[in-house]
Amino acid sequence: MYAITGITGQVGSAVADNLLKQGHKVRAVVRDAGKGRLWSDRGCEVALATFENAASLVEAFRGAEGVFVLVPPNFDPLPEFPEAHKMGETLHTVLMQANPERIVYLSTIGAQAKEPNLLIQHTIIEKAISGLPIPITFLRPAWFMENASWDVVPARDQGVIPSFLQPLDKAFPMVATTDIGRVAAELLQETWSGSRVVELEGPERVTPNKIATTFAALLGRQVRMETVPRESWEALFKSQGVRNPIPRIRMLDGFNEGWIEFESGEAGSRKGSVALEAVLKALIERTPHAR
């Protein structure tokens, strides 16, 4: 039996889908029973647990052949990342007590980077649980292609997409969430010892301009990218309610400047099979028109 956190989201649901299709038993770890009903209807065991309640997580993970750990994202952390340090301590305690046979933790590209940025939260958590006497894989995926969900409306309605990824002709590592879910399900079924890192990206790297031209082809209209000036980011993010925008800014700097990259480089990363066009097509189809 495999315990899956984040099962109501894109990645977690993809992990569960793959395991269920292969005939494996799945325990859906959810915050409330209502969110678990879909999965219980599909034959999953449902465990009610939260990361704020360590005891509930221990019970949710206990007896599992494998555990997929996806921590809730924090896009506006406090300085020095106290939330990530607390999460790492909690997970270390929970996993020691639950003692599953193996663990796949969803981390991120650039987790090895030393420069403080938004993604270093995963670095902190990786360090906290890497010494566990349980086989653990840190799955480090690239930039999610599904982040382009924010681009659908401006592409469709204005034909102009604001881009924080710059320059516009730079190829960035990106990956589809369906590829992440498939690979995570595969990793959960493997046997290994100690801790290991698996870095994952899509079949090819993607430029912001490529996103625009792909949208244009799918929407049947002209679409172009327009860079958002870096000097405007801090004020812009604060206007959106972000209290501490520096980690997010430095994350974007890391991608743009190239120091957020795979530890093993492009040559050493595992490659997915889902292309950008398929992801953007699905995003367009499920984005409603304004009324």
Give an overview of the whole structure.
The strands form three sheets. Strands 3-2-1-4-5-6-10-12 form an eight-stranded parallel β-sheet, with helices on both faces. It is built from twelve helices and twelve strands. It has 291 residues and is of the alpha/beta class. The longest helix has 17 residues, at 82-98. The chain is globular. It has one domain (2-285): NAD(P)-binding Rossmann-like Domain (Rossmann fold, 3-Layer(aba) Sandwich). Helix 3 packs across helix 4 (82-98) and helix 8 crosses helix 12 (276-285). It has helices spanning 10-21, 33-41, 54-61, 82-98, 120-129, 152-157, 177-188, 208-219, 233-239, 246-257, 265-268, 276-285, and strands spanning 2-4, 26-30, 45-48, 66-69, 103-106, 136-141, 143-144, 160-163, 174-175, 195-201, 224-227, 270-271.
The CATH superfamily is NAD(P)-binding Rossmann-like Domain
CATH architecture assignment: 3-Layer(aba) Sandwich
**Major β-sheet profile:** 8 strands, parallel
Helix content: 40-55%
Briefly characterize the structure.
By secondary structure, this protein is α/β, with parallel strands linked by helices. Helices cover 41% and strands 16% of the residues.
Key attributes of the depicted protein:
291 residues, Rossmann fold, 8-stranded parallel β-sheet, 12 strands, 16% strand
